[in-house]
Records
---
Amino acid sequence: GENVEQHPSTLSVQEGDSAVIKCTYSDSASNYFPWYKQELGKRPQLIIDIRSNVGEKKDQRIAVTLNKTAKHFSLHITETQPEDSAVYFCAVKAAGNKLTFGGGTRVLVKP
Amino acid sequence: DSGVTQTPKHLITATGQRVTLRCSPRSGDLSVYWYQQSLDQGLQFLIQYYNGEERAKGNILERFSAQQFPDLHSELNLSSLELGDSALYFCASSREGLNQPQHFGDGTRLSIL
C-alpha cells in the first residue's frame, strides 16, 4: 500500500520567518495531495490541495509544490504568524478515494 | 463549521462494551469516510461509503463495522471494546467526482476505562 513520510516532525520558527514541510510518497499512481491543519482538540481543516497535473499552487501565504518524478511535495508557509501554530498533515490519494496521511508536523511560531 | 456533524462529542465506556458513532455528511455529499486518530498512530483510514455502499476499506478491525443509510448518514459500530480503542474518531465527507476534497467533522472522543 501507499507509504507517506513527513518531515520534520516538529518545527519551531520565529514569527515572520518561513516554514517548509516535506512529504514523500511511494505509489507513482498517486494523483491528489491535500494538506490539513489541525489545532489542538479540533478537526483537521483542509488548507490547500494540489492535483498531479499541476506543479505548484498558491493561496495567500501558503503554497504547495509537487515533484512527481521524485515523488515528493512540500508545504510552504511564508510570513508565519502565531495563529499558524498547529499540527500539519500531508495526505496522498492513489486509486480509489482512500487518503493516506503522513505522521504530522507540529509547527510552533514564536512571537 | 465544515457542515459535517458527528455525535456524540464524547463517549466514556468500559472494556467489552459496544458503542455507535454517528455522522451526517455535508448537504450534497454522497461519500462518507471514517478515520481513527490515536496518539501513536496518527490519522488512519478505516472505511468509506458511497451512496449507501461500501467503497473502500482500510485498517478496520473485524470488531468494527459501519453502514450508510438511505438519508446518507453513517454509523460506525465498535464492539468488544479494548483499552487501545481509545481515540478520536473522525468522519469526513466529499462530493461525487475524482479527487474531491474531504471535509472533516469535529470528531467523537472515545475513552475506554
---
Amino acid sequence: IAGITQAPTSQILAAGRRMTLRCTQDMRHNAMYWYRQDLGLGLRLIHYSNTAGTTGKGEVPDGYSVSRANTDDFPLTLASAVPSQTSVYFCASRPGLSSGANVLTFGAGSRLTVL
Amino acid sequence: GENVEQHPSTLSVQEGDSAVIKCTYSDSASNYFPWYKQELGKRPQLIIDIRSNVGEKKDQRIAVTLNKTAKHFSLHITETQPEDSAVYFCAARGVGTNAGKSTFGDGTTLTVKP
C-alpha cells in the first residue's frame, strides 16, 4: 500500500542519547517534511526538503538535523536528546511545489519520550 | 514568516447542530488553505481545502469559506454527528521562499454530544 512509513512507532530515550527517526515514502513525492506535535500547539515544522539533495529549516529546527540522500527517505536525527524534545513526530510528503500538488500525506507518527 | 491563529480551541455541540471553526493568517501572499481532521491517536488527514482564487467550497456536510481581504477562513460542519468528534487543524501555505511550507493553527477539539 502506497504511503509513508515511520519508525519507530514509539521510543523512550535517555537524555543525551542520539536518536534517528526514520521516514520512507513510496509515492515518489518530491517534497517531504518533519513536524512535531505538542499538546495545544498544533503541528510545528522542524525541517523540510523540496527535492532530493536539498533541505531547509522550519520553525523549530534547533537540536534536529535531516538528510535527503534520495527521493524516498528523509530521516530526522536528534544528536543529543533533551526532555523538551518529548513529542509526537510526524513525517509528511507532497508530490511537489506546483499549485496542483497541494495535499500533504502524513505518516502514522513516532512518539518519542526523552527522560 | 506566516502566523495562523485558530479559534476556538475547544467546541462542544449537540448532534445535528452546526459547528464553525475560524482561522486567521498573516501573510497575504499565502495561497492554499487546507483543513485536517485528526482522530485520537491517528495521523492528520485532509478533509477539505481551498485555494486563494476561490471564495467557498463545499463537500457534503463540510464547507470552507475564505475572505482574502480580511485574511481569514472558516470551516463549517453541518448536521454534526458523533464521528465528527476530533481535533481539527487549519493551515496556510506560503509562496516564494515559503513555497511548500504549511503553517498550522493550534487546533480545535470538537466534541459532538449524542
---
Amino acid sequence: EAQVTQNPRYLITVTGKKLTVTCSQNMNHEYMSWYRQDPGLGLRQIYYSMNVEVTDKGDVPEGYKVSRKEKRNFPLILESPSPNQTSLYFCASRRGGYDTQYFGPGTRLTVL
Amino acid sequence: DQQVKQNSPSLSVQEGRISILNCDYTNSMFDYFLWYKKYPAEGPTFLISISSIKDKNEDGRFTVFLNKSAKHLSLHIVPSQPGDSAVYFCAAVNSNSGYALNFGKGTSLLVTP
C-alpha cells in the first residue's frame, strides 16, 4: 500500500529535550515536505526536499532541522524544543512538482 | 505574508444543496492549484486540481473554477453530502519557486442532514 508513515503519532516532551520525528514514504517520491498545522494558521511549510541531499527552508524553519540521506526518509529534528513548537505536524511526499502530494497521518507534539 | 487566502473559516450547508468554497491568491506566478480535504485525526488528502491554463475542472460532484484575472478560485460540491463535512484547504504551486505548495488557512465545511 502506497503510504507516508510518521512516528511517533503523539509525543509529549519537555523544553530543551532533543527529539526526532521520523517520516518515510514507499512511493519512490522525489519531493518530501514537513508542515505544521496550528489553529487559525492552516498548514505552514517548515522544510522541503526536492531530492536526496537537497533541502530548503519553507515558511517557518526556525527551530527545526531536516536531513535527506535516503530518498524514502525525511526526519524532522527539534534540537531544543520550545512550547511554541507545540503543534500538529504532517510529513508529505510527491513524485514531482505538479503531482499529487500524499500526507502522513500527523504527529501531535506537545512541548511543556 | 499569506499568498493564498481562504477568507471563510467555516461554512454550513444543507445536505443536497451546493457548497461553494472560495480561495483568493496574490501571487500571479502561481500556475497550478489544488484542493485538499482533511478529516480530524487524519492527514489531508488530495481532492481536485486545476492548471492555470484552464478555467474549469470537474470530477464527479466536485468542480473547481479558476478566474485568473481576479486571482480567485472556487470549489463547488454538488450535491453536498454529510460525508463531505471536513476542512478544505486551497493550495497553489509556483513552478518558478521550487514547486513549493502554498496553503490557505482552510475552510471548515459542515453539511447538515
---
Amino acid sequence: SQQGEEDPQALSIQEGENATMNCSYKTSINNLQWYRQNSGRGLVHLILIRSNEREKHSGRLRVTLDTSKKSSSLLITASRAADTASYFCATVDNAGNNRKLIWGLGTSLAVNP
Amino acid sequence: DGGITQSPKYLFRKEGQNVTLSCEQNLNHDAMYWYRQDPGQGLRLIYYSQIVNDFQKGDIAEGYSVSREKKESFPLTVTSAQKNPTAFYLCASRQAGNSPLHFGNGTRLTVT
C-alpha cells in the first residue's frame, strides 16, 4: 500500500537553482526517510527525520517535517546537474514496524546545465 | 567495500519459466527485503526476512518465493504463476530497528 505522495511528480530547473519536493502521508509515523534513485540504479538513503524533529540538514539538503500537516519537504540548494534523479519519501509507521516502510511515487528532478 | 550485490543486472526469460534473482550482502545486516518497481510507481514489497530461516510475505507475494538459508543471501524466485513478471527488482537490507535501507542496483527482468 502506498501512503506517501510526493509533489510535484516532475520538476525541471536550471543548475544553481533550488529544488523543493514535498511529501504527504496519511498515518502517524515514527520517522520519515528520503531516498534518491539515479536512472536504472538502486535507491540511496539521504536523510532520516524522526517524528519529534522538525528540521534536519545534510550538506546541500534540508528536510523539514510538519506532523500536524502530515507533510515533509526536501530542499536541495544550489542544484547541480548531478542531482538529476528521482527522489522518494518513505515513512515508518508509529508502531515502528520494521517492515512497514511505505513509499511514495517519487519526484523526478531534472537539473539542466 | 560493504554493500549489496544483485545479479544479473539484466535477465530475459520466456513466459512459463521460473527464474531466480540473486541478492548478496556483506553488511552483516539481519533484515533483507525484495521490492518490485514498475514505471511511475513506488516500491512494492514482495517478501522480507528479519532473520535467517525466517521470512514473511509482503504486499505482492503471489507468484514469488524466497529462501533465507544464510544471513548474507536472500534469493528471489519469480515463478510462472506471476502474471506480470516484467519489472525492475530491488533488494535491500538494514540493521534491526528503524535504520535506513541499503539497496542493491537492481535486476531488470523481462519476460516475453
